[in-house]
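ok trying again, last paste got cut off:
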Amino acid sequence: MIVSGRIVKGHKTIYRKSIADTCPRPSDFHDKLENCLLALCRDADIPAPMWLAKNTAELARFNKAVFYAEQFAETVGFDRFEIKIEET
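nice, full thing came through this time. structure:
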């Protein structure tokens, strides 16, 4: 699985990267997605966002989920963090 992440402030992209799941053991979709999401957050040096029901619906419908600043437990310096599944 390859998941790309993008951090947006205003109308500018301030971070963009794609991460491939490198889990050596067989795992399900949820585990792969969680590994990639946490790897993107570590790489961007941001806290992990709260996953809401709307994120599940977005992911199922568009292969994309958007996390707004309110979904982070800590204050962040951007407007939104987007992830998109590029390859499964």
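cool. Helices lie at 29-44, 53-62. The mean pLDDT is 93.
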